[in-house]
Design goal:
This protein has a domain of 77 residues: N-utilization substance G protein NusG, insert domain (mini-chromosome maintenance (MCM) complex, domain 2, Sandwich), CATH 2.60.320. The protein has 2 helices and 7 strands, in the order H-E-E-E-E-E-H-E-E. A hairpin with a 2-residue loop joins strand 4 and strand 5. Helix content is 23%, strand content 36%. The strands form 2 sheets. It has a 4-stranded antiparallel β-sheet with strand order 2-1-7-6, with no helix packed on it.
């Protein structure tokens, strides 16, 4: 084969690879609701489209302030010793937000206005 053909084939392969990589890196659909569990018990299911803030208090004195803002949710204050739950920041989807010392888990539910994904 000629050099021009190889270069064209290599360029096409590069474009396809970059396109596929971009599809893999883009986040999935954002969740529309989040479920909040304390010590394994569902205490609230919140709509992420409604800005709100509330405190989750455990029987043994653990406290987490949960804030919903602009379609995302976060633990903005906590009295746990490590504050890992606060470092997660505001999330719109993905893995759960967990505060192990206070036994708090925030999981995402549903997809926002998505009827079909290919």
């Amino acid at each position: 084969m000629k050099t021009r053909t190889w270069l064209l084939l290599l360029f096409a392969l590069l474009v396809l690879s970059l396109g596929g990589g971009m599809l893999l890196l883009t986040a999935g659909p954002e969740a529309s609701r989040a479920e909040i569990r304390s010590d394994g018990i569902v205490i609230a299911t919140v709509d992420l489209r409604v800005d709100q803030e509330f405190t989750v208090t455990t029987a043994w004195g653990g406290e987490n302030v949960v804030t919903v803002r602009s379609g995302a949710i976060a633990v903005t204050e906590a009295n746990c010793p490590d504050h890992y739950c606060m470092h997660r920041g505001f999330c719109k989807s993905g893995g759960s937000i967990v505060c192990l010392p206070n036994k708090l888990v925030i999981s995402f539910l549903g997809e926002s206005d998505v009827d079909f994904a290919a």
